[in-house]
Amino acid sequence: MRAADPLHVQLLRLLRDEGPASRAELGDRLQMPRPRLLTELERLVGLGLVAEAGLAASRGGRRSTLVELNPDLRFAAVDLGASSIDVEVVNGRLEPVAAYAEVADIRSGPKVILHRVNDLLHKARVDGAYERLNGVGVGVPGPVSFRDGLPVSPPIMPGWDRYPVRELLSREHGCPAVVDNDVNIMAIGERHGGVAHSVDDFLFIKIGTGIGCGIYLSGDVYRGTDGCAGDIGHIQADAGGPTCSCGNTGCLEAVFSGAALAREAGVAARTGTSPALAERLAERGAVSARDVAEAAIEGDVVCIQLIRDGGRRVGQVLAGLVSFTNPSMIVIGGGLAHLGHILLAEIRSVVYRRSLPLATGNLPVVLSELGPRAGVAGAAVLASDVAFGEAS
């Protein structure tokens, strides 16, 4: 069920994002002659994408009939993290009707992880969330060939290289599917319903197990020729730094990411330089990035410095991106966004200090508004787009 005509996509997106509208309102918004609009709507009704939705408020004459997206439309949104699976089933307005989240290791391989995704979606169907899916959107934590719908040499995803994720999910659920990397879907989610709503040029920086950048230029995600634009986690930040999962030395995510911060926290705990982390290590047998955040809030000087050091590294890389792309906004998200305003303040400080004043004079650097929902929110947008016939 695809409406490949760009005009259909405009109509469907408008109904998705703005809700039910009269034919007159749609004609005004799309600047389309009424006869043509009626023809297009009739075709969309025939495709099962649009339905009538009662009478509009009176505009002084006969009340017109509202049209809306078919209330039976359902899209599946899947956000695969390094250690988690988040799944939502949403309606045509992208409102969740079912949600599931659980711990999972992406290194278990595609057969195990996708089998679990399918189990969760089938559970949603049994629970009454949908009769059939109209589209599936998936984000994965690694480089993706968006054109082909498969991961390509993902450093932290052994066994996933060129695995036909899109093809298998489409076949399993009998609907179109789309696959993108996790930071792109987070950027799409933030653009659709978060702090970057209606911002046409911005950078979404995901700081978690890895580090990546979703790039919005002129209102669209920029993926690059082969789909790997924004892979800033593998820009060298310290020539003498540790070896990265990609095999190179001193990459940004090797010196500051969830794993890197946990590693540094472990050293601080074992040496006793951080009493707060040493206490947590004694209690739990291990320390994590979240322990660093909690101890920093309590005023632990070493933890505060660890966060500042990481923010400085990220800020140095972002300063170069700001000078190169001149975005309207930078949004910080991902698992380490919970490090909060200590991290944000350091990133801001470095970006504002190292970038040209013309590029930073009106540049907000802010935390994600959607937080952990950014990924599934963006996957839902992509799923609807592919169902509407645009991202095929």
Automatic annotation (TrEMBL):
Keyword Kinase: yes
InterPro entries linked to this entry: ArsR-like_HTH (IPR011991), ATPase_NBD (IPR043129), ROK (IPR000600), ROK_cs (IPR049874), WH-like_DNA-bd_sf (IPR036388), WH_DNA-bd_sf (IPR036390)
Record keywords, A-Z: Kinase, Transferase
Pfam families: ROK (PF00480)
Signal peptide: none
GO molecular function, one term: kinase activity
PANTHER family linked: GLUCOKINASE, ROK (REPRESSOR, ORF, KINASE) FAMILY
The family this protein is said to belong to: Belongs to the ROK (NagC/XylR) family.
Name used for this protein in its record: ROK family protein (Putative glucokinase)
Naturally occurring in which organism (per UniProt): Micromonospora matsumotoense
